[in-house]
Amino acid sequence: MDAGRSNPLNDVDDASLQAQLTNRTATVTAPQDVAARRRWVVLGVLFLVTVINFIDRQTLSILAPVLRATLHLTNQQYGRIVSAFQFGMLSGEFPMGYLMDRWGARLGLSFAVLWWSGATGAQIFARNGLGFGLFRYWMGTGECGNYSGGVKTLTRLFSRKDRTLALGIFNSGSMVGSTIALPIVVFLLRHYGFRTAFLVPALAGVLWVPLWWFVYGKEHKEPEVPYNARVSLLEMLRSSESWAIMAMRFFIGPVMQFYWYWIPSYLVEIRHMSMRELGWLGWIPFFLGDLGGVAGGWAAGHLHRRGISTVNVRRILMYSGSVLCMASMLVPFQHLAATAVLLIGIAIFADNFVSANMYGAVTDLYPEQQIGRATGLTGVAGGLSGLLFPLLTGWTVDHGSYSPVFVMVGAMPLVGTAAVFLISRRYRHWNRHLSSLTA
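and the corresponding structure tokens:
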């Protein structure tokens, strides 16, 4: 700087300079603060639609004792209705994931919610098991979009250290929905009839769409993926990561589905609870599950901030949660219904603890532009097991008891956890890299 040229900083006093610097800093950080707040608002709206989604799903299982008596359905026939929904999930998972990657979550998720809400409301026209099966199939083809759209959105908006917490909160909407579904559906059943219990969540889904369209505005629009950067389904299936995450969800996914669809019937038929008692007490295990999803996400963020590698975070949390899932094996041997409900709650807590990190593992192994389809692939595997497991459950209960089923759902999360770490080449590569660093 020339000696004769005045420095503008010398023309202001310290107080003015500090004010200028403060304003400049505020100008830079304000957009970042706004963006940080908006991403939590987006998470809140995704949490809300997950709540609605699982009220939709739970309505049938809560009404199962009434519907089975009215329509004279056996456990196997009821299992086929549940499997029809799972077959719908299986059919719709990858197409919905493709739509999320191709259209973006704003449009894709709006379409998915309107599609499944139409099916939810249409169940009022069902007059037999076949009718319910067809409408539940339609419903399943749309409801799978909740996760492919939600996981993709949160992968974009949250950094790795906060992402699993966001995924845990998002996934905990399933438990909140399951928790509040019981008293809501029982109330609607007793005062307005079971058909109203299908209409109310359908209307809630339709009303959610304008809220999502407003909150997830144009500033969140996903960037276009260059054509030469796109990866085909065949290329994705050639990677070990795809088979790892599919095996993981094949074993972990049906566990929570068993609790959603069969526990109300178990508590009424085996533990002899009335519908009123079910409404008062049946929500407790799902409330514990809600806490488990948030705890799994918080624990992952905590370990990341302490410098634990991503692969070790997943390993520590998923294996520990899977072992705790074995609490369900003790349920059939309890004489007190209250003890059985508590053990079911512990198992649901643990399963959701694992699930938060299961979805986190998908975001570990895939880039953002493939998250929708990758989540869809896991959903295909989860849909396949979800299709088979209710049939197995119905047959086992009709020809034996619930005891073997509780043993199976206690062991399956551990099998799924082991599968992802044994099959995924990238996780194994990270293990070797970490070993070389510590050698």
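(Above: one complete record from the training split.) The chain has one domain: 34-214+232-438.
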